[in-house]
Amino acid sequence: MRFVDEYRDKDSAARFADLLQRITTRPWTIMEICGGQTHTIVKYGIESLLPPAITLVHGPGCPVCVTPLEMIDKAIAIASQPDVILTSFGDMLRVPGSQKDLLTVKAEMGNVRMVYSPLDALKIAQENPKKRVVFFGVGFETTAPANAMAVWQARRMGVKNFSLLCSHVLVPPAMEAILSSPSNHVQGFLAAGHVCAIMGYEEYIPLASRYAIPIVVTGFEPLDLLQGIAMTVKQLEEGRHEVENQYTRAVRQEGNVRARRLLQEVFTVSDRAWRGIGIIPSSGFELREEYAAFDAARVFEVGTIAAQESPLCIAGQILQGWKKPYDCSAFGHQCTPEHPLGAPMVSSEGSCAAYYHYRRRQGTPAATP
User: Fold this and answer.
1) pLDDT at 48
2) The whole model's pTM is what?
3) Within 13 Å, how many C-alpha atoms sit on residue 153's CB side?
4) Burial, 99: exposed, middle or buried (Cβ in 10 Å; 0-12, 13-18, 19+)?
5) CATH architecture entry for 2-63+171-245
6) Taking CA 83 as the corner, what is the angle to CA 116 and CA 118, rounded to the nearest 5 degrees?
7) Would you kindly state where each structural domain of the chain is located, as residue ranges?
């Protein structure tokens, strides 16, 4: 555990906390983008180590949480067909659609399978040539290369019974949507380190300049986050707005060049609907025309399915940093991990799930690093 424990050292955390106390002179609001970062913040009580003037708000960086309700319904409609094997990662199976989730379809004798990789789904398609095998691909830029590789391999090998239900979203357009909103109150960003490990952080440089806001690429351990917050506050206090990289052990400015080339070959950028937020221009991936035969939404003709969110769920406001989970009247009552109203209560990266498991009510302390 050496290479994990060194990023959870109590003495180092105390030093960062002391540094933040010394350099913070004004109120600042900082948003962490990634749901994995949110869980670390809540689980380890990072906010309790910060000066009262620093407010952390949670962003839309949970891929399961921002997957539109109608996309879940499309997956359910496909999975309910008798000749289909629908595959996905485990966290998607419990996300509620309009009437049920994919686990319910499985219980109703639908062929729904959890896999650990889209290449597992491709193998299932090869082993079941009389079935139509669909991989429900959800995520940010982090998981997109593996999904692109599965489609690329299927085309190369002539596996015609495999397709991808694509629900990929992109981080920089979501950040711009938040920053351009008249109600925006975010003054600094902690960018998602794993996204930047794939894409680099060149796209963030114009954002930082255009909106005069510091952006710090940050990792996921307690010390990563404390250092990223300290770097952000230092910029804010000095009146700077640059892109800095805290997560140097994993991220380069140019990202993973080979992965980016694969994404450009298989996907094209398109407008994308975000659950609870709405359509954000140029914020998602869809398959290029030359890969249309592997596009499950076209293969199964489910493009017209629409859905309505629960009126009790305020996931959109939480995902944009306007409210915290405990501001929702349904939190912990009508909405629990066993009976969720929205995806943020289901996903392993959802902020509602983090608050439910680690801090049921405002002000309850969690574990320290």
Assistant:
1) 94
2) 0.88
3) 16
4) exposed
5) 3-Layer(aba) Sandwich (3.40)
6) 20
7) 2-63+171-245
